[in-house]
Amino acid sequence: MRRLAFEAVETGLEAAFWGAVGGSALLAGAVVGFFVRLPPRAIAAIVAFGAGVLTAAISFELMEDAYERDGLAGTAVGFVLGALAFTGVNYLLARSGARHRKRSGAAAGESMASEGSSGTSLAIGSMLDNIPESVAIGLSLVGGAGVSVVTVIAVFLSNVPEALSSSAGMRGAGHSRRYVLGLWTLAVPVCALFAFAGYEVVSGWDGAAIAAITAFAAGAILAMIADTMIPEAFEVAHDFAGLVTAAGFLVAFALSRAAG
After folding, report:
1. Cα 91 from chain centroid?
2. What span, in angstroms and rounded, lies between the C-alpha atoms of 139 and 209?
3. How many whole angstroms separate alpha carbon 88 and alpha carbon 185?
4. What is the DSSP letter of 99?
5. What is the C-alpha to C-alpha distance for residues 127 and 183, in angstroms, rounded to an integer?
6. Cβ–Cβ < 8 Å for 66, 211
7. How far apart are CA 202 and CA 196, in angstroms?
8. First to last CA, the chain
9. Are residues 149 and 210 in contact, defined by beta-carbon separation less than 8 angstroms?
10. Which residue in 9, 12, 14, 19 sits closest to 191, CA to CA?
11. What is the CA radius of gyration of the chain?
């Protein structure tokens, strides 16, 4: 029993490590977004690419795993509940001033200022976007097959543009370097914690419950993509956003097939 408990904790720590790896991209993106003045179209293109990568990870890693564990009905219920949960919380945060936390264009600062965006709401909103992704990393270790490399890569590739866009917008809104970089530094252990929880909390559950929470994470991630990433990408990149998103999807799909 002690050995099994030790192995569970050890795997949980592995999940935390990979969660931190995915989260470290947030800090890297924030540094670039704050110190490097990239053209808004370049940032929008990177955001679109990240959206495509995450969409593929949802399709070929999370939803596929949930379906294999519990079929369509349970997977669909978990997916819808995840989307509803994220949308509900995001709606409340939007009313608190975090609606444009991913904006990076010229109007980002004005939008945040006009809506009274507070540091707290921006921080909570930015953290919210990355919780389901981190949980998904931890869930990929359930079953003993090892971490899903594709999920980690997808989260890493999508986190860079998320933080890049958000930190550029926060800079435009007048937030200090200490605040912006402090926020994204804090995000790394938060991602590690939720990846750890994603494994430890559900590792002893049955297949149907694991499928439900996996689909829940997938639904929350897809809602996040639609609510925060795609609008930012389309607003600036316009007609090219779809093409770049498709490119990100194809890259993640190729990684998924290569890993399989």
Report:
1. 17
2. 12
3. 26
4. T
5. 9
6. yes
7. 10
8. 33
9. no
10. 19
11. 18
Q: Which residue type occupies 16?
A: A
Residue 131 tokens, joined: 């919780």
Q: Give the DSSP letter of residue 75.
A: H
For the record, the structure tokens of 192 come out as 């590690």
The residue type found at 151 is T
Question: Per the structure block, which two tokens stand in for 26?
Answer: 């947030």
Which residue bears the tokens 């939803």? 63
Can you give the pLDDT of all 260 residues of the chain as single tens digits?
Answer: 444 444 557 888 999 999 999 889 888 888 887 788 778 788 788 888 988 988 998 998 899 999 999 999 999 999 999 999 999 988 887 776 655 555 554 444 445 444 444 445 555 666 777 888 899 999 888 876 678 888 888 888 778 777 776 776 677 667 788 888 888 888 899 999 999 998 988 888 888 999 999 999 999 999 988 887 888 778 777 778 899 999 999 988 888 888 76
Nearest to 88 by CA among 219, 195, 191: 219
Instruction: Count the helix, strand and coil residues of the chain and give each as a percent rounded to the nearest 5.
Output: 85, 0, 15
Q: CA 138 to CA 17: how far, in whole Å? A: 10
Residue type, position 247, single letter: A
